[in-house]
Design a protein that fits this description.
The chain is built from 11 helices and 8 strands. By secondary structure, the protein is an alpha/beta fold. The protein folds into 2 domains: 184 residues, HAD superfamily/HAD-like (Rossmann fold, 3-Layer(aba) Sandwich), CATH 3.40.50; 74 residues, DNA polymerase, domain 1 (Orthogonal Bundle). The strands form 2 sheets. It has a 6-stranded parallel sheet with strand order 5-4-3-6-7-8. Strands 1-2 form a two-stranded antiparallel sheet. Strand 4, helix 7 and strand 5 form a beta-alpha-beta unit. Helix 1 runs parallel beside helix 6. 41% of the residues are buried.
């Protein structure tokens, strides 16, 4: 689809829906109605693929302490928390790859994390922060159906706001429909984020469809009582298995694979 036409469609849908909190759409189906009345989407990875910066940042920091990891795909095999974190388990798992398998001290964790962020910031400047192909079209379709769409991110406030601005998502969503870590008490995998996205849409958590790319985020959606669709960045069998183990109902590796009407009708 022409990008300018997509933007015009999004702007029109945004103008038509941004004042509404209560969802508008119910979808007739034999035996009843579809249960999905709102959409909640993780940002980092799921919409904007900045995982290369995160993952290469971890790999470069690992190399500095003598742990050589040849690729993100290899890291997924060696470091169980590599996708989605949290940070400390990733660092402990990387240290465990050293010959003596030492447990890092708090000071070593802090230093290692600092080095990871130095690499991340350097790498991020070279990354295209446009939404993943197909997301804007899916967003248009959701809004045409009258479904409110919220964002639920675990990225800390300063980096989260910068990411929203650089990706252009800040122009497509009201602040009311963006849940940041500072808006909730407990971070993912606790359910707080997706309980809050549902609350802001005025629906039950069981009536929102969550899109997530990491097991940690999937567990958050499942704990909130929402069906979850997995959107992994890597078309990797272990990554998919981890998402299934966390509780996803469906997996797509590309937003362009999704036929919105068919997906919604699969949740009755």
């Amino acid at each position: 689809m022409d990008s300018r036409r997509t933007t015009r469609n999004l702007n029109a849908c945004w103008r038509n829906t941004h004042h509404r909190v209560e969802p508008l759409a119910r979808f007739p189906q034999k035996g009843g109605f579809l249960t999905i009345r709102g959409i909640a989407v993780d940002v980092e990875g799921t919409i904007v693929n900045i995982e290369p910066a995160h993952h290469e940042g971890w790999i470069r920091a690992a190399a500095e302490i003598g742990v050589q990891i040849e690729s993100p795909e290899k890291a997924i095999e060696l470091v169980p928390h590599f996708i989605g974190g949290p940070d400390r388990p990733i660092i402990e798992e990387i240290f465990a790859l050293l010959p003596s398998s030492p447990k890092p001290s708090d000071e070593e964790v802090k230093k290692f994390l600092g080095r990871k962020w130095v690499h991340y910031e350097a790498l991020l400047s070279a990354i295209d922060l446009s939404p993943r192909p197909g997301f804007l079209e899916a967003l248009t379709e959701f809004r045409k159906l009258g479904l409110p769409v919220t964002l639920g991110t675990s990225v800390e406030l300063e980096r989260g706001l910068l990411l929203l601005k650089r990706s252009g998502l800040d122009k497509l969503f009201l602040l009311h429909h963006i849940v940041l870590p500072t808006d909730v008490e407990n971070s993912k995998p606790a359910p707080d984020c997706f309980l809050e996205t549902a609350r802001r849409m005025g629906i039950s958590p069981s009536e929102q469809l969550v899109f997530e790319d990491s097991p940690r985020g999937v567990k958050s959606g499942v704990a909130a009582g929402s069906p979850v669709v997995g959107m992994p960045v890597y078309d990797n069998e272990k990554a998919k298995r981890d998402l299934l183990a966390a509780g996803v109902a469906r997996i797509f590796t590309d937003w362009r694979q999704i036929i919105v009407g068919d997906l919604l009708q699969s949740f009755v």
